[in-house]
Amino acid sequence: MAKLDETLLTGLPPFSKLEQSAIRGILDKAKLHRHNERAVIFNEGQAADRFFLLLDGYLRVIRSTPGGDQIILLHISPGQLFGIAPALHRDTYPATAVAAAESVALSWPVRLWPEFMSRYDGFATESYRTLGQRLGQIQETLTEMATQAVERRVASAVLRMISQSGRKTESGIEIAFPVTRQNISDMTGTTLHTVSRLLSAWERAGIVASTRKHILVMKPHELVMLSEIQG
DNA sequence: ACATTAAGGGGTA
DNA sequence: TACCCCTTAATGT
Where are the domains of chain A? Predict the structure, then answer.
């Protein structure tokens, strides 16, 4: 396999404080993965033999309910660690990771985890920061699901996606990866029909513009209002 | 205030 | 063509 370029990791939080030689060593132990949209990177319950860093693209983290349908817990954007089961002292992945768009990731065998934690300055802090953020985000989503009306939940979900993956354009901020109505309903515990109706209503109000798998938010502030204030 | 059902349009492999 | 994504109206809880 061709040698990976060191600039892939320089500047990324887990490795930002490292010397070139250390980064070289880390890259030489890494495996490079490319995934097409909808490809499964690993499954919930599967033996966690490697941990990952997303270089490019977007992932969905999914859990299946006993009822059979799936819940989208969160998205992962470039530069983030994922599949870090060893940080939770687990030997299986707690959720399924699916590529939301064409993605590129690096991975390392879990046996290198202790070494990374102790040897590389910033890696441990970044891992725990990531875990904390994820936990907080999931907790927030779940509380939302249990307590708030559908329109507020959908507004929050869209806002979360644009704050994590928003791409600025002339007319607003667009979600940087493909999202279907069904996807949003899987994030918010509602149906694709309700999501479709809400997006249509918001479109008539000039808040968003959406086409197939693509959402552009033209008035983020209005969405914030919808996510906070009772309709 | 929501889900479900039904019926259809349009795009794409 | 079959399949996926999206829309809307009517009806049900």
Answer: 6-138, 148-228
Q: In Å, what is the separation between the CA of A211 and the C1' of B10?
A: 12
**DSSP notation for chain A:** -PPPPGGGTTTSGGGTT--HHHHHHHHHT-EEEEE-TT-EEE-TTSB--EEEEEEES-EEEEEE-TTS-EEEEEEE-TT-EE--GGGGT-SB-SSEEEESSSEEEEEEEGGGHHHHHHHSTTHHHHHHHHHHHHHHHHHHHHHHHHHS-HHHHHHHHHHHHHHHHEEE-SS-EEESS---HHHHHHHHTS-HHHHHHHHHHHHHTTSEEEETTEEEES-HHHHHHHHHS--
**What architecture (CATH level 2) is domain A6-138?**
Sandwich (2.60)
Residues with CB under 7 A from strand B: A 149-151, 189-191, 193-194, 212, 231
Q: Is the pLDDT of residue A1 over 90?
A: no
- A148-228 has which fold? Jelly Rolls (2.60.120)
Tens digit of each residue's pLDDT (9 = 90 or more) over A31-65: 999 999 999 999 999 999 999 999 999 999 999 88
Q: Give the closest nucleotide to A183 (alpha carbon vs C1').
A: C5
